[in-house]
Design a protein that fits this description.
Strand content: under 5%
Helix content: 55-70%
Order of helices and strands: HHHHHHHHHHH
Radius of gyration: 25 Å
Distance between the termini: 68 Å
Number of domains: 2
Largest sheet: none
Length: 192
C-alpha cells in the first residue's frame, strides 16, 4: 500500500518539516505508516514545532548580542568595562565575573526579545545616533550598568527596524553590471 495524498498531507501538517523530509520518498507497503498516522491524529501539532530557545551560557549570549547589536569586540569591551582580550576570552568559553555575566544576560534577553534570530545587525550609525525622544544613543544607554530595560527594548526595536529597512534598500539597489568576468575589463587589465 502506498502513501496517498491525504496521508502525505497529514504528515506535512503534523510533523516538523525536517522530520517529514527524512521519511523515505518511496512507496511503502505495510502497516508502519498507517500506525504512525493513527497515533499522530491525537497528537497536538503545536508540540511538534521547534521553538527558538534563549541562549543559556555566556558564550551563546555574547554571540546573540554581537549578532544583534553588531558592535565590534572593542565596543563590547567598553560596554562591559573590560579589555578586548577579555571579550575574546569570553567568546572562547572562559566564564566572565558575575557582575559582567548579569549584564551579558540582560543584554541577551533584550536581543532575544527583539529578534530571537537576528537577520541583520543594527547599523552602527543608528546605534550611535541620538534618536528623537531619547536623551542618549543606544550605545550610550548600554554603557550604563543599571540601564532601564524597557527603554533599551523600545529603542532597540526602533533601531533594529530602521536597520532592517536600510538593509532592504541596499539589497534592492542595482548591482554593478561589470566585474572580473567582463571581457572589456579583462582586455584592459591584460594590456590589450
Amino acid at each position: 500500500m502506498g502513501m496517498t495524498n491525504a496521508s502525505i498531507y497529514k504528515f506535512k501538517k503534523l510533523l516538523p518539516e525536517q522530520l517529514f523530509y527524512q521519511i523515505p520518498k518511496q512507496t511503502v507497503s505495510g502497516p508502519g505508516y498507517i500506525f504512525i498516522l493513527q497515533s499522530l491524529e491525537n497528537f497536538p501539532p503545536t508540540q511538534t514545532r521547534k521553538k527558538t530557545l534563549p541562549p543559556v551560557d555566556a558564550r551563546e549570549q555574547l554571540k546573540l548580542i554581537s549578532a544583534f547589536f553588531g558592535f565590534p569586540k572593542s565596543k563590547l569591551g567598553e560596554i562591559f568595562r573590560v579589555s578586548r582580550q577579555s571579550i575574546y576570552n569570553w567568546f572562547e568559553g572562559i566564564d566572565p565575573e558575575q557582575k559582567h555575566y548579569n549584564k551579558i544576560k540582560r543584554l541577551a534577553e533584550i536581543a532575544f526579545e527583539v529578534a530571537p534570530q537576528p537577520s541583520q545587525r543594527i547599523f552602527h550609525v543608528y546605534a550611535n545616533d541620538v534618536l528623537e525622544g531619547y536623551d542618549k544613543s543606544l550605545y550610550n544607554y548600554l554603557l550604563d550598568d543599571n540601564f532601564d530595560k524597557e527603554t533599551i527594548v523600545k529603542l532597540s526595536k526602533t533601531v533594529y527596524e530602521m536597520s532592517r529597512e536600510r538593509w532592504e534598500r541596499i539589497d534592492a539597489m542595482p548591482k554593478a553590471k561589470y566585474g572580473q568576468d567582463d571581457p572589456a575589463i579583462l582586455d584592459n587589465n591584460l594590456g590589450r
